[in-house]
Amino acid sequence: MIQLTEQAAQEIKKIFTDNSYPETACFRIAIIGRNVERPLFVVEDRPGKAYKVLESLGIKIAVHPISFRHLDGTTIDFSKDVEGGFFVRK
């Protein structure tokens, strides 16, 4: 299972609304290469067929099965600093 914090879910909903994404939109999380600690976060119109689709706080989360093995049990949060906002794995 992958969970979103309330702050992360609110930020994703804002991104969906501000950019007029369709209801099929999802928040995709991927592990690229060997960098397991720093996943890639992407918003897409709809998940690919190979992706496992989960839901947390009303947000669809798409994860490739191989990435899911490394992300199962993860919580995703949203943080801000002087350079802006970003999603982080807790």
Strand order of the largest sheet: 3-2-5-4
Number of strands: 7
Topology-level CATH name: Hypothetical Protein Aq_1857, Chain: A
Strand content: 35-45%
CATH superfamily: HesB-like domain
Count of separate structural domains? 1
- SSE succession: EHEEEEHEE
Task: Give the distance, in angstroms, between the N- and C-terminal Cα atoms.
Answer: 13 Å
Name the quaternary structure. Answer: single chain
**What is the CATH architecture assignment?**
Sandwich
Helix tally equals: 2
- Overall geometry comes to globular
By CATH reckoning, the class would read Mainly Beta
Mind describing the biggest β-sheet?
4 strands, mixed
Q: What structural category arises from helix and sheet content?
A: alpha/beta
Helical residues, percent: 10-25%
Low-pLDDT segments: none
The value of Rg in angstroms is 12 Å
Describe the structure.
This protein is of the alpha/beta class. It has a single domain (about 5-90), classed as HesB-like domain (Hypothetical Protein Aq_1857, Chain: A, Sandwich), CATH 2.60.300. It is about 20% helix and about 40% strand. The chain has two helices and seven strands. It has helices at about 5-20, 65-70; strands spanning about 5, 25-30, 40-45, 50-55, 60-65, 75-80, 85-90. The strands form two sheets. A four-stranded mixed β-sheet has the order 3-2-5-4. β4 and β5 form a beta hairpin. The mean pLDDT is about 90.
